[in-house]
Amino acid sequence: MSTTLELQPEKMEAFAGRFLEAMNGAAMMLMSSIGHRTGLFDVMAEMPAASSLEIAEAAGLNERYVREWLNALVAAKVIEFDRLQQAYRLPPEHAALLTRDATPNNLASVAQWIAVLGYVETEIVDKFSHGGGVCYHEYHRFHDVMADESAQTTVSALLDHILPLADGLLERLEQGIDVLDIGCGSAQALILLAERFPRSRFFGYDLCADAIVAGRFRAEEKDLPNLTLKVRDASELIERDRFDLITAFDAIHDQAYPDKVLRNISNALRRDGLFLMQDIHASSYVEKNIDKPLGAFIYTISCMHCMSVSLSQGGMGLGAAWGEELAQEMLIAAGFAQVDVRRLEHDIINNYYLARLG
What is the 8-class DSSP label of residue 155? Predict the structure, then answer.
């Protein structure tokens, strides 16, 4: 005997409205990513209301494409349009959140993730049937976008907000200590630190050779003898009592074997050392993430990147939403005796863990 469910029309209508709104939101993200990559937002922020031709000429771009881009963002209420003057204007309040000058609040930079994830959708769909994961090298522009995000959330706040979370750390860096960054990427954070603290010695490890090559190129331009970058797997880290400070910025949950990496980090720290870990602000329990501002995005980027790249290495597939509860549990299991969790006002997506051995 079958039971026919009675549908609630008002609930259906509300969901349909949310879905259509999300479609327009996704379109706005793609157009915002293009606005960032082409520099159109930066150009318009410096212009009064102007025609599509004037904007295209100022940006050195094709007018027909610029006009369609403008119209899409007029419909999305990002750009204003004067019908009589046939002129487009980026409101200063919007420019304050969409230009390179807006760091660390440049939302257009973050919008790039939608296209990066969409690029591997077919590969991810295949994994739903066959398991396994998608490798780092299959993600088009991943390191470029990650560098943009790092510049916003990490590098811009490193000296004034992140490092001061640990009392006395800036003074120790001034005096000279040994520092390792796990998953350093193109080493933007380390380059800043090596310049600012010439008495300290900095080391960066990353699995991606291309990112390390890019970092070395930047470091050589700045002549930083106190910075060493290497292609290394953190799960094979064998140093013991070697570093005073180890950092990992949005890197641990992507690892194939994060439990092993955390254990290696605790072994590599000196007894009075500090492990500073930036990782996703989420709970380990889905019901606690429902009302988080970026809850759906965190699980999506996890499914389409973080979890998948770990699985591609035969790893645990921990995922971006491993959460505070599991993160603290794993840090304690790795040998850390004290773990403090901090937040920063400018960073709505990350927690900052201060882990010590004693």
Answer: G
350 three-state secondary structure: strand
> Encoding tokens for residue 308?
């998948």
Angle between helices 258-268 and 323-333 (to 10 degrees): 50
DSSP 79: S
Cα-Cα-Cα-Cα dihedral of 83, 84, 88, 92, to 10°?
-100
Residue 2: pLDDT above 60?
no
Model confidence pLDDT, tens digit, residues 281-323: 999 999 999 999 899 999 999 999 999 999 999 999 999 999 9
Sequence-ordered strand ranges (E) for 150-206: 178-182, 201-206
- The candidate with the shortest Cα–Cα distance to 263, out of 182, 348, 146, 147, is 182
At the topology level, CATH places domain 9-101 in: Arc Repressor Mutant, subunit A (1.10.10)
Tell me the pTM.
0.90
Dmax over Cα atoms in the chain, in whole Å?
78
Assign a CATH topology to domain 117-356. Rossmann fold (3.40.50)
3-state helix, strand, coil in the chain (%, to 5): 55, 15, 30
User: Residue 19 — pLDDT band, cuts 50, 70, 90?
Assistant: very high
Q: 357 CB contacts (<8 Å, ≥6 apart)?
A: 266, 269, 271, 272, 273, 335, 336, 337
- Which secondary structure element, helix H or strand E, spans residue 301, and what is its range? helix 295-301
